[in-house]
Design goal:
The protein is mainly alpha-helical and about 350 residues long. It contains 14 helices and no strands. It has one domain.
Length: about 350
């Protein structure tokens, strides 16, 4: 068994993205093995799925330890995803395992990912406008305004069992048909189903639900697929440590850093599966990187502006407001009366002195 150092390096890069975003495992790893390293499609799909058995638990363990996994959501997702993955494999068998059939399914998946990526950008802009409005209201009123539902902290999640099971069914079928979607597609669907779920919980929940899903798919590949142990070992050696590092970054990094990365990975995966060539993908990576930087800087600027608006100390008694007049938030008349009453016994004494 020969371990390929270049596959190890490439797998490390993909593993870092998987750990940070929960997306891009099959959507990036399988094409990398096929187009960059000449691995046959069947061997790439089989080896990637088997390697995912080792990748997913590492990232999931980090999120589980940090409490960024919604286990109730994982249960409902697995209920739909695991059996539907077997159904997807059977449907692929009925369609015929031809390249044309596989290409048709991948185009459908790519289109869905692109629509989801655009929707994520629109939703993020909408959330940003709501947070800015909330910060402005908080600054003007001098009171605290709840922003947990706007900012995606994950609090106040209302579970939707039937819809969550259906998300698992859709994701499972796509994994059975194409070997991809356990991360990319699931994250898109979960984000729209639970828009207040924080990025760290989104990634952590997706990584955990992918364990039984990819486990079932990998078992099928071991029984009926074309697993190449050398390729599998190279992928595992490169990806497992990188997934661990990526998961640490994901569970600690703020939302304005993680969400752009998730969106970029999903968009690039979608472009790949709708048939964009290598040059187009390279340009997309450059644009996505620039967009991520701009998004992060914009979010940081908004956060600083909101902090300066809400964190500045308010005017106190005897100070002057922004308009030049006496501030309206000083002590009440009763407070001022009390102050004079307390000082009254001192004044006569000082006058007699």
């Amino acid at each position: 068994m020969h371990v390929d150092g270049f596959i190890v390096l490439g797998s490390a890069l993909v593993g870092l993205l998987v750990g940070m975003t929960g997306a891009g495992g099959g959507a990036l790893m399988t094409p990398m093995l096929i187009f960059l390293f000449g691995v046959t499609p069947t061997a790439a799909i089989s080896s990637d799925l088997v390697a995912a058995i080792f990748m997913r638990p590492v990232g999931a363990a980090v999120h589980f330890k940090r409490g960024t996994v919604n286990m109730q959501m994982v249960g409902w997702l697995a209920l739909g995803a695991v059996p539907s993955a077997i159904l997807g494999a059977y449907l692929l068998h009925l369609m015929g395992n031809t390249k044309a059939a596989q290409t048709d399914v991948e185009v459908v998946l790519g289109a869905a990912l692109l629509v989801g990526a655009v929707g994520m950008v629109v939703r993020a802009l909408w959330r940003g406008s709501r947070r800015s409005a909330a910060s402005a209201l908080s600054a003007s009123s001098g009171s605290s305004v709840r922003t947990d539902l706007m900012g995606g902290t994950g609090r106040g999640i209302v579970m939707r069992p039937l819809a969550t099971v259906l998300v698992g069914v859709v994701g499972g079928v796509m994994v059975g048909l194409t070997s991809v979607g356990s991360g990319s597609l699931m994250i898109v669907l979960l984000l729209f189903l639970y828009p207040t779920l924080s990025s760290s919980q989104l990634v952590g929940t997706d990584l955990v639900q992918a364990i039984p899903l990819t486990g079932a798919a990998a078992l099928g590949q071991l029984l009926f697929g074309h697993v190449v142990l050398a390729v599998t070992a190279s992928v595992v050696i490169g990806s497992v440590p990188a997934v661990f590092v990526g998961s640490l970054l994901s569970s600690r990094a703020p939302d304005q850093v993680i969400r752009p990365v998730i969106t970029a990975v999903i968009a690039i995966s979608g472009l790949k599966y709708v048939g964009v060539d290598t040059a187009g993908l390279g340009a997309a990576v450059v644009v996505a990187a620039a967009g991520c930087v701009a998004w992060v800087l914009h979010g940081h600027h908004n956060a600083q502006r909101a902090g300066s608006g809400t964190g500045a100390p308010g005017p106190s008694a005897g100070t002057t407001g922004a308009g030049g007049g006496t501030a309206a938030v000083g002590p009440s008349p009763s407070d001022r009366t009390g102050a004079v009453t307390q000082a009254a016994p001192v004044d006569p004494t000082s006058s007699r002195a």
